[in-house]
Amino acid sequence: MPKPTLQLQGQQFGQLTVTERDASNARYWIAICSCGQRVKARGARLVDGTTKMCGECSARQRTRHGHSRRRFKSPTYQSWRDMKQRCGNPNVPSHAQITYKPEWESFENFLRDMGERPAGKTLDRINVFGGYKPGNCRWATAETQSNNRRNTAQLVYDPYGLYVVASVSEWARFLREVTSNPKWTSKTLRAIINTGTMDLHHIVKGISPELRAHERLAEHRELEREEELAELKQMFDGLLGQSTCIVEAEVDA
């Protein structure tokens, strides 16, 4: 089955507004840049975001920020470019409905809001269901992004009201820090829990003095509460017993 013919007339791609199909080559389109320059561009390059402005505007942009030269793209520029290529792209299902701040069509505005990309980090959305915009974006490590995925499994540690929720990798890191044992990896922790050898409660309780102390305190408070309830019950039983005696005395009289 032949691929459907692109219909791009009237659509806008970056700074380019498509006006008509090129008469000499059906794969190319004629567009007008925001600066007024007339551009001939391949339809596929317009759709995937490769071509989004005329050559003169592109040259001026490279000169201004210095993050994109002929054979060089800075990490910050790569993150910005990848964001734009993913958003609204039907070939990337996770981002097909995701948008970015309109002002971030310009790399300079993106750079102004986000700053330089730190080493070892990439662009991440805090709310994975929200778009790319200031307040919902950060530079994050691979582990942070993994924990922030929509389908990341969470483990709950909930003894005596101490409710702690974290991903498998976060619990594994906690265990490594507490024990100074690098063998506590996500794979190891997941294997122990999945085989039923030991659950998270007993693993954490067994190696963390702080949490063992918390449990002892919680147990002590629970015991005190039970003693208080027993005293209250005894008091109410006594009061009810006295009331019964008074009622019986009045009836006899």
Written description of the protein model:
By secondary structure, the protein is of the alpha+beta class. The chain contains 9 helices and 10 strands. The protein has 3 domains: 1-65, no CATH class; 73-149, no CATH class; 153-245, no CATH class. The strands form 4 sheets. A 4-stranded antiparallel sheet has the order 1-2-3-4. Strand 9 (154-157) and strand 10 form a beta hairpin. The longest helix has 44 residues, at 209-252.
Structural domain count? 3
Order of helices and strands: EEEEHHEEHHEEHEEHHHH
Number of strands: 10
Rg value: 32 Å
Characterize the overall form: elongated
Ends distance: 105 Å
- Judged by helices, strands and strand pairing, the structural class is alpha+beta
Order of the strands making up the biggest sheet:
1-2-3-4
**Main sheet overview:** 4 strands, antiparallel
* Structure annotation, total helices: 9
Low-confidence stretches: none
Strand content: 15-25%
Mean pLDDT metric: 75
Helix content: 40-55%
Ordered list of secondary-structure elements with their pairings:
Elements: E1 12-13, E2 16-21, E3 28-33, E4 38-42, H1 43-47, H2 55-65, E5 68-69, E6 72-73, H3 75-86, H4 107-114, E7 122-125, E8 137-140, H5 142-147, E9 154-157, E10 164-167, H6 168-179, H7 186-195, H8 200-207, H9 209-252
Antiparallel strand pairs: 1-2, 2-3, 3-4, 5-6, 7-8, 9-10
Features:
two-stranded antiparallel ribbon, 3 domains, 4-stranded antiparallel β-sheet, 253 residues, alpha+beta, 46% helix, 9 helices, single chain
